[in-house]
Design brief:
The chain has 347 residues and is α/β, with parallel strands linked by helices. The chain has 11 helices and 12 strands. The chain has a 7-stranded mixed beta sheet with strand order 3-2-1-4-9-6-10, with helices on both faces. A 3-stranded mixed beta sheet has the order 5-12-11. A two-stranded antiparallel sheet has the order 7-8. Strand 2, helix 4 and strand 3 form a beta-alpha-beta unit.
Length: 347
């Protein structure tokens, strides 16, 4: 009964947060264009949350109809999948179902995945034929397929939906929508493994030849993971998708995660106009990467008691067996399920 009450209260809290956010957006819209006087010292707060775009159903009426049936409060989890990841896809959607998340959708990149999803009662969508996308979708490896998402997600945002993009090598243990802030254009999990690497730190570069000025202060942060992020339907978010998709098409040897971070973080400078997007780093113990799990959490008695929202097996190539071990440990309570695996990989 207590667990049921906690779930009910969590859902109510999420709804209240959404209503507060919508009211705040209306207030921002009313105040836009008005000049304001600055308040007393320490009281001034700039606007952090950009307004959502007006939905345009003409962009894709078929997808719009599907999202009206699936989305909850205009939010949906989206994953791209082809037949190369069928085994992991089954672990992915099985745990989403177990947690009780109704608003998720698989964008199938081949007909076999369409049939596989339908046979398992999984919401699925296949895009209209597109030669530029289809050739990569059916035969591409992880990085090639990963880059497609920046083109595919644009329509979701244009239709007015917030998207929680998920790679397939992720195990869901709680409903992520209960743990989002929704105050930024992009809210992303991190590849960082502690407070410094995840949230940023002052890294001092030492150049002895400079004498008195030998120490130069630099700012560092581990990259956002482009395999799990929440994106609101705002102009900066759509511009980010366009920038990344454009660069990936012009620079075929580039890595989508590197491009994603460069466009999101690099400031304006001569010859380059930076993106003006608000961003937030997710809690790395809740939205956990596999380096945090296997190097730190499983070896710490207190941290082992935490239950993450998701575990992303991004740091390890042996993804499928580690996904199954995560399920054994967190879902089935097998305390030694994580022990056979090394911290890193064998190669």
């Amino acid at each position: 009964m207590l667990k049921s009450d906690i779930v009910s209260l969590t859902e109510s809290n999420a709804l209240l947060k959404k209503q507060a956010r919508e009211l705040n957006e209306k207030l921002q819209m009313a105040e836009q264009g008005k000049q304001q006087k600055a308040g007393p010292f320490g009281t001034v707060k700039s606007l952090r949350t950009n307004l959502a775009v007006l939905p345009d159903e003409s962009v894709n009426p078929r997808l719009s109809k599907l999202l009206k049936e699936i989305a909850v409060q205009n939010e949906v989890i989206v994953a791209l999948a082809n037949s190369n990841v069928k085994e992991m896809l089954e672990v992915w959607f099985t745990n989403i179902k177990r947690v009780g998340i109704p608003n998720y959708l698989v964008v199938a990149l081949d007909d076999h995945i369409v049939d596989f999803c339908k046979s398992n009662g999984v919401p699925v969508y296949k895009r209209d034929p597109d030669e530029g996308v289809d050739s990569i979708a059916m035969t591409g490896g992880n990085h090639a397929v990963s880059g497609l998402k920046f083109r595919v997600l644009r329509e979701f945002l244009q239709l007015g939906y917030s998207v929680l993009l998920s790679d397939i090598d992720i195990v869901f243990l709680q409903n992520p929508f209960h743990h989002l802030y929704r105050d930024s254009d992009v809210e992303s999990m991190t590849d960082g493994h502690d407070n410094r690497t995840a949230y940023g730190f002052n890294d001092v570069f030492d150049e002895p030849a400079m004498g008195w000025a030998r120490y130069a202060h630099t700012m560092r942060i581990w990259v956002y993971n482009s395999g799990f992020f929440y994106m609101r339907p705002t102009l900066p978010a759509i511009e980010l998708l366009d920038r990344v998709a454009g660069r990936l098409s012009r620079e075929p040897n580039s890595w989508d995660q590197a491009v994603f971070n460069e466009e999101l973080h690099f400031p304006s400078h001569p010859g380059y106009d930076g993106l003006h997007a608000a961003r937030r780093t997710m809690d790395y113990y809740l939205f956990m990467n596999s380096k945090v799990l296997f190097k730190t959490v499983r070896k710490d008695a207190k941290l082992k008691q935490l239950k993450p929202v998701i575990v992303h097996l991004n740091y390890h190539p042996d993804k499928f067996p580690r996904m199954k071990a995560v399920v054994e440990y967190y879902v089935n309570g097998k305390q030694d399920a994580l022990e056979p695996f090394p911290d890193g990989s064998d190669w």
